[in-house]
Known about the structure:
By secondary structure, the chain is an alpha/beta fold. Helix content is 35%, strand content 15%. The strands form two sheets. The chain has an eight-stranded mixed sheet with strand order 1-4-6-5-7-8-9-10, with helices on both faces. A two-stranded antiparallel ribbon has the order 2-3. A hairpin with a 5-residue loop joins strand 2 (23-24) and strand 3. Helix 3 packs antiparallel against helix 4 (190-200). The longest helix has 15 residues, at 112-126.
Amino acid sequence: MRHPDMQSGWIDAPHRGVSLGRFALESGEHLDDLVISYVVHGDLADRARPVVLGLCAIGSTHHRLDFLIGNGRAFDPADVTVIVADALGNGLSSSPSNSATQPGARFPRFTIRDMVNSQKALLDHLGIDMLTAVVGASMGGMQALQWGVSYPHAMEKLVALVPMAKTSAWSQAVNHAGRCALETSNGDWRAWLAVMHVLAMRTPARFAQDVAQAGGTRAWFDTRAAWFRTQRLDPLDWIWQSHAYDAHDVGTTPGFGGDTARALAAIDAQTLIGVPELDLYNPVEEGAQAAAQVRNATLLRVPSTSGHMMASDADPASAAQLNAAIASFMGDRQASR
């Protein structure tokens, strides 16, 4: 396992993992031995408590949603149990970088639905058949919507931040540029950082702010590159996840014949979709369209100029607004705080 160094704001919960055996993928291939990494915030043994499933973004870990977890936040472990699952290909759950029998390029390609099905296998193993909520940001938000389509009666509520129901051509192009940066740089992540952490994740306004704080563009890149080395991300893991990202469409779920709108209309859960003013990775229009097609959805427009980073602790004002809005959506007593 290639766990990143702990960062400020992360919750140091014990890491757990379970081996679930041979696992069938949508492609018809198999994982020889599915391993799912996860953490638990709260008391999993108390089955009377509400259970929330948290999902992580591309290239991230179970720490991705830590900004929503804690006393005074949207999900307080004193009141709910939060299980955050590591997605296939993130280096903690089964991935090209850590498979003993299917290493590297031998690791089968997987989809976002495969991620969701692996998470369902984890919950089945844990004996959990009903969730209070499924929550995720970015690729985690895409997984959340897929949960609503694949398992419409398994949760009461969905929270999908900066999501897409069907990956846009723009987002596919961004990922393609990221893959090219990795594949042509001989292991140097700087070109990839320029594509993914600047052009995709930030807006011009947010980047100008970050550069000013860093003391210049070059200083920002030096600092960011040093930080990124602490994340221990394997290039092939990100590439495999990016292919899953590119291929995603809830409409191709069995039974919907490629009809994205019909798949979204099948979601039963009350749904909250959050988007910023501008997103140069997952276009805002994609989240807004998904909200219009889910029968019981609310679209939250957060007045943030941070772009895709709106749904993270990198934008404290947006994080505070998201925590309040999600708490209110969940009917949490913390909503009035």
